[in-house]
Request: fold
Amino acid sequence: MQVQEAVRPQFAPEQQPFTPKELQRLKALAARPDQSNDTIILPIDNGAPVLDSDKDANWRRGLSDDQLRRMRQQYRQSWNYAVPESDAQAQREYFGTRQRPPIEIESIDSYQGRRLQREPQFLYPEDVRVGREFDDDRRVMDYDGQIVVRGDDNRRFEQYGRPVEYEQVDHQRVRETVFKQNGDRIVSLRNRYGQLIQRSRITADGREIVLFYSPDLYAADDSRPVVYRDPGESLPPMRLLVPLNDYIIDVGSDPNRDYYSFIEQPPVEPVERVYTIDEVRNSARIRDKMRRIDLDTITFATGSWDITMNQAGTLKKVADAMNKALRNNPAETFLIEGHTDAVGSAESNLILSDRRAEAVANVLTQVYGIPPENMVTQGYGEQFLKVMTYGPEQQNRRVTIRRVTPLVRPVQQ
Reply:
């Protein structure tokens, strides 16, 4: 089945370079974004909006910057929240109006399974279509008009252990297990639509570490047809309430930052519910809740996803911060995002960006020892340009890291 071609970013990046006065104004807004209803723009020549959701044609659905400004003004009072001070607070307080009951996380081994001899074929939600498939198990998919690439994390996990084993379990679900060389197991649970319900690491001594867990999918009736909806659709335009330098780190221009303190920061706004990992992958509006590190020291050549050892060395401080976070909480999940410039077709850029994200994840595992199961990779092609140009641009060929744990897992309280 064919899907429509991935589309170019809706913002025509043909603007003139900013004048010194305009750059000064943008820097002032970036330092105090909470003082404005405007879309916050990166204070660089031809800078794009800071928030991916402000660049996302699927979320915006044709809304102009002026309409977004009016919506931010309209919702300013009803969304009058403070930036959460912890992951638990972000999940516990949904704008002060309700409190969630505790969530009991089921063990991923609680199901009885029947071994499958071949990889299962999943169904798809009614509004999801599968298009072109590639030799490395990547496929381009149409999620109700949103074109995405999807790979298979198990293929990355298998590099560090044995091939994946599949089991059919209750409620038409599938359990996938990869045995690592150190005796640990990476275990994932999917519903019949292939949606990830849970992923756990079972250590060699039998301890279970839940990496992400979706209570809604776990409790769902999998026999009913489902449709895809961006969970960010119901949310108003995001207001960035923290300074830009507390929301994004560019590794190349800010090498001496305390990356651990930054990466451990909680979401910048409350988290309405525990999202599935696929919802986070697909929704720019939800991902924007988490701060990000732009690995601008990984300078990919046009059309390439190769990383030299010299460039791999520039990841050390970020990797050290990730490892420290994992020592404190081995259940952390990091989203590794790949991006391209706008040279080439939109579909080829989606595939290229996904390979770039996977290449960085492999370096973080092979060179710095970060467990592969604590990372989820996703390519976004040219959808979220950093510099608004259709030409070749190094700053657009990048990989970004976000800690997404408080979006995809109930915080233990």
Remarks:
- The longest strand covers residues 173-179.
